[in-house]
Design brief:
The protein is an alpha/beta fold. The chain is 35% helix and 23% strand. It contains 13 helices and 14 strands. β4, α4 and β5 form a beta-alpha-beta unit. The termini are far apart.
């Protein structure tokens, strides 16, 4: 089997998840690691017993064995290494968000088109079974007309979490707070299910933490282009933290997704499969989902998305989550922030 050689840029917490995702896939191979901090890449490779270590980005990108790179740096530091990798003809998979503004994401997307390489953002929640069942049912029209579609991310982060890195809780590097950093996967699923958002109106606040510039609590009301209405609640201020929840309701059916579980799966026109879906997925969650511990995530979604990304490279096709699709959540979040600043309804571009 042909394998895609991967290099990892940025060796913080999420780099470990990227390494696991690469190692678990037969079509992926870990080749090298880069970090600007001297010795960090060497320690990473020694800890895992494989890979070439680089602390010079140009040398890393000139490694011919690296066909694709993962960007695992802090959010606001994605643009520069992504553009550098693209210009070296490397395919790129970027940890969420691809970047912290729609304009910066567009620079990445346009450069990838120019250089003819594949770029995507990591939205692994789309690869779990339960969300895919919801998406399939929506596409088949089983919900009827979508009416109310909500996302709740009532998580908790300690003050120590924010104090652990100077970039955490900053506009420049984090790009926002509980909405941009913690709630983005739920927001991505919401727009994947319901289609593009048309406009938002929002409130945010910093209620439980000190020494951060961004929100730890936010609420937004959305109107989708298909006419459905919705609410987003995102926080790192709710103790002890609860699993993320998405509720999709329509004129002929409703589903409630709690992390990887379907807590409600009810339709006006039931099928033979529905009772089996309820039996299998009513309690399918295997990890805490990051509700109170950012390290307590299931790596299966990353593994599946990395498999699809590598397959897309090998098969010369678009990945399941293409770059344009991966940019949609940031458009909603930045519109929310603009609504907070202006005190008005804001169109989602």
């Amino acid at each position: 089997m042909r394998k895609v050689g991967f290099g990892i840029i940025g060796l913080g917490v999420i780099a470990e998840t990227h390494f696991i995702a690469i190692e678990k896939n037969e079509n992926c191979e870990f080749v090298a690691a880069f970090d600007a901090v001297p010795g960090k890449a060497k320690a990473f490779c020694e800890r895992h017993g494989k890979g070439k270590a680089y602390d010079d980005l140009e040398s890393f990108l000139n490694d011919s064995e690296i066909e694709a790179v993962t960007i695992a740096t802090p959010s606001g530091y994605h643009l520069e290494p992504a553009l550098a990798a693209i210009r070296h003809k490397k395919h790129v998979i970027i940890e969420k968000p691809m970047e912290i503004t729609a304009e910066r994401e567009e620079l990445i997307i346009n450069e990838a088109k120019k250089e003819g390489v594949i770029v995507t953002g990591v939205f692994q929640s789309r690869f779990y079974d339960a969300p895919r069942l919801i998406k399939k049912a929506i596409d088949e029209g089983r919900f009827g007309r979508l009416t109310l579609c909500d996302a709740q991310v009532k998580w908790f982060r300690s003050q120590e979490y924010y104090d652990s890195g100077a970039w955490r809780g900053t506009w420049k590097v984090d790009g926002g707070g509980a909405l941009m950093n913690q709630s983005i996967h739920a927001i991505d699923l919401l727009q994947w299910f319901c289609g593009p958002a048309e406009e938002v109106q929002a409130y945010t606040a910093t209620l439980a933490h000190e020494r951060i510039e961004v929100e730890d609590t936010g609420v937004a009301v959305l109107k989708f282009k298909n006419g459905a209405l919705g609410v987003i609640e995102g926080s790192t201020s709710v103790y002890p933290g609860f699993l993320k929840k998405i509720e999709i309701c329509g004129t002929e059916g409703s589903a409630v997704l709690e992390e990887e579980s379907l807590k409600v799966w009810s339709f006006k026109n039931e099928t033979e499969e529905d009772s089996e879906i309820r039996r299998i997925y009513s309690d399918a969650t295997k990890a805490g989902g990051g509700a109170s511990d950012p390290k307590a995530i299931n790596t299966l979604g990353h593994e599946k998305q990395f498999n699809d990304f590598a397959s897309a490279i090998i098969e010369h096709r678009e990945p399941e989550v293409n770059a344009e699709s991966a940019s949609e959540a940031v458009k909603i979040i930045t519109a929310i922030y603009e609504s907070v600043r202006s005190g008005k309804k804001v169109k989602v571009n």
